[in-house]
TrEMBL record:
InterPro entries: DH_E1 (IPR001017), THDP-binding (IPR029061), Transketo_C/PFOR_II (IPR009014), Transketolase-like_Pyr-bd (IPR005475), Transketolase_C (IPR033248). This is 2-oxoglutarate dehydrogenase E1 component. Homodimer. Part of the 2-oxoglutarate dehydrogenase (OGDH) complex composed of E1 (2-oxoglutarate dehydrogenase), E2 (dihydrolipoamide succinyltransferase) and E3 (dihydrolipoamide dehydrogenase); the complex contains multiple copies of the three enzymatic components (E1, E2 and E3). Residues 360-537 form the Transketolase-like pyrimidine-binding domain. It comes from Altererythrobacter arenosus. Keywords: Oxidoreductase, Thiamine pyrophosphate.
Length: 688
């Protein structure tokens, strides 16, 4: 296949030519890639390895030709068909092969495997097993490089199948809008898994989509190192000069099925046979000899060196130890962090609470926290839909921040949740402390992949080499009337089920500021769920650097007859119910969890040991809620001490209704809390 370069916007012509040293260097990388790829396939065939593997045969030239144009400080985000990309970026083959064997000496300590390789030391920031998901993350890395003025760029590689994923389109749009220094490399092997390119899209090419997003598009023969090098050099030079992103489509027909051992009946048999008879690496070897006058014995030596290097890597990997079982629970969070606090914390309940106070609404406290963070830490950036002035956010939580701190640090985004969260993830990986706003918790479902499969897992999959100090703010709009089923949900139980995420739910203005500042300064990804029901409720908020540590609950009302555990807006319903019961001589102790990951079971247990009865109240649906987790732990650890079974009260198992009378019946309120507590206290031992 001979595909001529096509330019889809005015960038000038390709006029660079390879010198012989660079040309030989590209061949050396291609041979190292091919030997590594083939060795892995031999080990799979022999049963020495067992995993789903995606060979790169036919595509070796693409990263090999780009590699000489990159420095170790330039970044790469790649996809699961990745062995060629990671070898070309400079990761030692010994550690790559050891990772294939799940060994402790592997690139990721055996925790990533073939689809999740990362090597930040050599600029390989992430490999994603989710099709197209790397593009939004690449944008965030590029944003960090742009803000730093480093001149460094990001290469983002994906396949032709990913070009039809929404995340890629959101990323292309944002990259064009923000003029980011990123080169999107579509490695078009003409099949999206088992579906041909012609059956996947009506578009003639992938590259022609670029101008639709204000991005330059090039299409080149992905089996020709010379064409790839020339096009990539143009794109990388533009990116370094601040001239924006490029969409580079490299067409390189696949030389095997989708995965190792998969069938090939869906493929063009004639094209497949021709490609195998004269693969790109063989054609390039002839070109080096015929056009560059390279001595064949030099190429023979390169071939032999690659075989020896890979064989040494194989022996190294087989002899290396497996990770110890203790590694299973490491790298979920930063060192020393746990999802559940079992003993009473030695750290203070609040930091900076002795400062002067200012009365302000809950929304104002969020604004104050963001303002403080932006003022005192230049690594903090805020991004989201409609957050800049004059809008200042749909509920005015960010009003005035872009005017004070500038549009570079308080960034309006398109309505593109995947692009927003992905960019925040990438920026966090580069050392920024981004705060991403998802307008309502319901909309987090649109970008759940970025939250659950990337933000939460990158530290673990990289064996602790990657950190994601990211904060995601979102509103829960339930129980305020008329928002309905798609704008009112409380999804904290979803997030709590994903290892790697920390989750805070402030109920008061002071905690809104204190928990948000703690989240921004935390080394792990944090989700702060704000209650719209509380947004305009005033309270005293400490000035300055006030923080509420994550994982520290607070007894907000002392009592002796029962403990009620709650958080978020539901806490206020509990306090109202406790006040009503106090008039009847029943004293309820109320514990505000404040965060559910980490979960402060120590404070909860101490309170329940004191009162002998427990009930958990939350605004989320009761079935499968966080209350079940707490109830189970209390039953396991305090069963003999309890005067009654642990009770729960959450919302009805229905979507949130529109009609206000039905919505009121859906959520817990003081009367339903009082009724359940009276049953708990009176029904346990006959006492009132």
């Amino acid at each position: 296949m001979n595909i001529s370069p096509e330019v889809f916007s005015e960038t000038g012509s390709f006029d660079t030519r390879l010198d012989s040293e660079t040309a030989i260097g590209i061949y050396q990388i291609m041979r190292r890639i091919a030997e590594t790829d083939q060795s892995i396939q031999r080990q799979l065939a022999a049963g020495e390895l067992q995993f789903q593997y995606y060979p790169c045969g036919g595509q070796e030239a693409i990263p090999a030709a780009i590699a000489p144009l990159l420095s170790p400080d330039d970044r790469a985000v790649i996809t699961y068909r990745c062995i060629h990309d990671i070898v070309a970026k400079g990761t030692p083959i010994k550690s790559i092969v050891a990772e294939m064997f799940g060994k402790a000496t592997g690139t990721c300590g055996g925790k990533g495997g073939p689809m999740h390789l990362s090597d930040p030391a050599n600029g390989l920031m992430a490999t994603t097993g989710i099709v197209g998901a790397g593009a939004p993350i690449a944008n965030g890395i590029a944003l960090a490089k742009q803000l730093a003025g480093s001149g460094q760029i990001v290469i983002c590689s994906f396949g032709d199948g990913a070009a039809n994923i929404g995340a890629v389109h959101e990323a292309l749009n944002l990259a064009g809008l923000w003029n980011l220094p990123v080169v999107f490399v579509c490695q078009n092997n003409l099949y999206a898994e088992y579906t041909s390119f012609e059956e996947s899209t009506a578009a003639r090419t992938i590259a022609e989509r670029g101008p639709s997003y204000g991005i330059v598009g090039h299409r080149v023969d992905g089996t020709s190192p010379e064409e790839i090098y020339e096009a990539a050099q143009t794109a990388i030079t533009r990116a370094r000069a601040g001239e924006g992103p490029t969409l580079l489509e490299c067409v390189a027909p696949r030389l095997q099925g989708h995965a190792f051992g998969s069938d090939e009946a869906h493929m063009d048999a004639e094209m497949l046979a021709a490609g195998r008879a004269d693969p790109p690496i063989a054609k390039y070897r002839r070109q080096l000899i015929d056009s560059f006058g390279v001595d064949p014995t030099l190429l023979d030596a390169i071939d032999a060196e690659a075989k020896t290097e890979v064989q040494d890597a194989l022996e190294f990997a087989k002899a290396a130890p497996f990770p110890t079982e203790e590694q299973l629970i490491r790298d979920v969070f930063a060192p020393g962090e746990k999802p559940v606090i079992e003993s009473l914390p030695s750290r203070p309940i609040e930091v900076g609470c002795d400062a002067a106070f200012t009365s302000m609404p809950y929304a104002g406290a969020i604004n104050a926290a963001l303002d403080h963070a932006l003022t005192h830490d230049d690594k903090v950036v805020v991004l989201g839909e409609d957050i800049a002035d004059p809008a200042g956010g749909v509920a005015k939580a960010t009003i005035g921040l872009s005017t004070k701190h500038g549009a570079e640090r308080v960034r309006n985004t398109p309505i593109s949740e995947q692009a927003i969260v992905g960019a925040a993830i990438g920026a966090a990986m580069e050392g920024l402390r981004p705060v991403a706003e998802i307008m309502l918790a319901d909309f987090a479902m649109v970008c759940m992949d970025q939250i659950a499969n990337h933000a939460a897992k990158l530290r673990y999959m990289s064996g602790g080499k990657t950190t994601v100090p990211l904060t995601i703010r979102m509103l829960t709009a339930g129980n305020i009337g008329s928002f309905g089923a798609q704008h009112s949900q409380s999804l904290e139980a979803w997030f709590a089920h994903i290892p790697g995420l920390k989750i805070a739910l402030p109920a008061t203005p002071a905690d809104a500021k204190g928990l948000l500042l703690s989240a921004i300064n935390d080394p792990d990804p944090c989700i702060v769920i704000e209650s719209m029901r509380c947004y305009f409720t005033p309270g005293d908020v400490p000035d300055g650097d006030y923080r509420v540590p994550l994982g520290v609950a607070k007894v907000v009302r002392e009592g002796t007859d029962a403990t009620v555990i709650s958080y978020g807006w539901a806490l206020h319903e509990v306090l109202a119910a406790a006040g009503e019961l106090a008039d009847a001589g029943i004293e309820i102790e109320v514990v505000d969890l404040r965060s559910i990951v980490p979960l402060d079971m120590a404070t909860v247990s101490a309170s329940v040991a004191k009162t002998g009865r427990a009930m958990i109240v939350h605004g989320a649906v009761e079935f499968g809620g966080i209350g079940a987790e707490i109830a189970a732990r209390l039953a396991e650890n305090h069963g003999a001490e309890l005067k009654a079974p642990v009770a729960r009260l959450g919302s009805a198992y229905t979507p949130v209704p529109f009609a206000q009378n039905l919505e009121a019946a859906h959520f817990p309120d003081p009367s339903s809390i009082v009724e359940r507590l009276k049953s708990l206290i009176g029904g346990a031992d006959g006492e009132s």
